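Class, study these two lines:
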Amino acid sequence: MPWKVREAMELRASFVDEWQSEDWTLAELCRFYEVTRKTGYKWLERYEEEGLEGLADRSRAPRHHPNAISAELEDRIIGLRGQHPRWGARKLRAVLEEKGEEELAAVSTIGAVLKRNGLTVPRRPRRRARPNAVPVATVSGANETWSADFKGWFRTLDGVRCDPLTISDVHSRYLLRCQAVGAADTFHSQPVFEAAFREYGLPRRMRTDNGAPFGSNGDSGLTTLSVWWIRLGIQPERIEPGHPEQNGRHERMHRTLKEATACPPGQNRRRQQERFDAFRQEYNQERPHEALGQTPPAQHYQPSPRVYPERLAEWEYPSEWQVRRVGRSGQMRWMGHYVFVAHALDGQAVGLQPIDDSHWKVYFHFYEIGVLDGRGLKIGSPERWKKRCQRGTGEQK
């Protein structure tokens, strides 16, 4: 009768009952229950001392860990954390070491102390927005690529929040716009882009990071603003998350902008905008740029020949493609079912290019949204489809 057939407590109690009946010798009982005589004596002794509770499993963990820290050190760690609530385990250990603490704990041990005492908050995993499917393009002329970003917000001296939206030409470094807006969203930023398009024409690409209002966490990566750019014939070009160096020229300009206009900030938003305008004039027309042979950006920029259209024409997809209209819920009808595309495409038409019997590439104008799996009724990113094709090619070889 192996021990795993019945609960251990029940078997041990049965072992004791059989022993108390005096019908069996201890050796016979141990052979029957498949335990050693040492184990049999142990159960009998525990039963006599504690009753049935003594037959329960006991923890095998050591009562004292040789590497455990003292209660005094744990109290000092907690106290130090209270003085510096934003400091992590590495900084706390460095302070303890600097103070000449005789008993030092490992970083992992200090982290465990903080967690055990409820002094840490686990970070929620963040969904990353979909980056550009291809590496950022090199530029050889003005208006091939513009960069846009919100320089980190700050407050003017009257306490009002200021969100500067900046737009620059990547090739010439020409600062097209530096505008304080009410909020970093589509409603406040789209008029600034429209004014720039009307004054300077349209670029080929718009390089941004993945944050709102430029990119979204959806598989398509589209937002209302980027959909508008695509309808204007502008290719959104989002850098990889965590790689600001891909937009390094624009980021470097932000550093200069902050030093010149926001240290300290203006009295109010109107005065701050006057600083931005003066900076843009000097930056474009007077300030020599080392990468431009110590000449100002204005000597290397000319407006785009692509004029801003007064009316956006409907895009025409090839005749052999399927065309579907996206509804308010961001879904389209496909084979009697609803398939989610993107909320930002509400009311827009998308084209489906056939790949095989059950897969179609989904496009909005020239922008590839992803690949529709007709069986799963789901649109996956183009990167997933490419990886799948690569795996399939490798298996065939």
In short: The chain has four domains: 3-55, 71-116, 145-300, 322-396. Residues 322-396 form one domain. The two ends are 55 Å apart (CA to CA).
